[in-house]
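# nightly structure sweep
# worker-07 picked up a monomer target from the shared queue
# config: single-sequence mode, recycle default, output format = structure tokens
# input follows
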Amino acid sequence: MENLHRLFALDRLFRSHRHPVPLATLLGNLECSLSTFKRLAKVLREQYHYPICYSKVYHGYYYDSTKAMPISGLWFNANELQALLIVRHMLERLQPSLLSEYFNSLAEHVDKLLASTGKTPAHIAKRINIVPIAHQSIASDIFLPLCRAVLQRTALTIQYCDIEGHYSKRTVSPQRVIYYRNNWYLDAWCHVRQDLRTFWVASIQSLEIAEQNVQNVEEETLVRHLESSYGIFSGLPSHTAHLRFTGRAAMRIRGSEWHPLQEEQHNPDGSVELWVPYSDHRELVLDIMRYGAEVQVLAPVVLKKEVIAQFKKALAVYEVALA
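# output follows
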């Protein structure tokens, strides 16, 4: 297999010239013999289906613009192609519909490029495994139109069921799609509430393009409103949780990021303290409970009371079961 950089150089020459490129120019730029050029052209034509033609008028070679042209992917080196394959493998495990029929031609093109490096999807899958836990895969008839609406800046009307089981129909202007803790979320401007909202994509029952003009929200506003507080329950932070971790929990929590603006302190006794800004305590409480007796809420009191209440409820369930 010829070096990828030579294939790229040949592809670039064809794409950068409006007229057929003379053979002498090709050989000079590639610094190769006629036989090497023919071998390169054969690889592009037969393996990657690039429509290389010869012009008797210009005595040169060119891409036939009347035929379907594959995208150019030959600028990737071997390491970059392997990284691309890893990303593809991750997407297939996390959300298969991302590589649906819309992207099959791209995926096939990438596979051919990767094969030239001696690596294949099967090879990567054996060495790097993605194991989603409690992962929800979204139906393609929801996920793909949603992604298109985000990219094409189109308003949608959605049928939505919230976490309390209440159904509603609302028009939204999608801003971005977020993958967070094994779940997909949609950040959108809600035309009903006239405010930014985060929707759980798995709870979108149906969607259709809305006639209403899309409302665009500046990136700075999105970051300030939706990322400034802890977790997916967004909003401007109104509290700061002060947590103290001990034992194995302290070891696991060192260097982990609960929030971009958190503060972390390592104590002489091995414990670790975190200060985490938040606006909604629900997700934070669940994370705190994961560490059981190896975490203590030092402040605020309202958060401490909520954690105690949730532990009491859990204890009551088991006490009833053992009675």
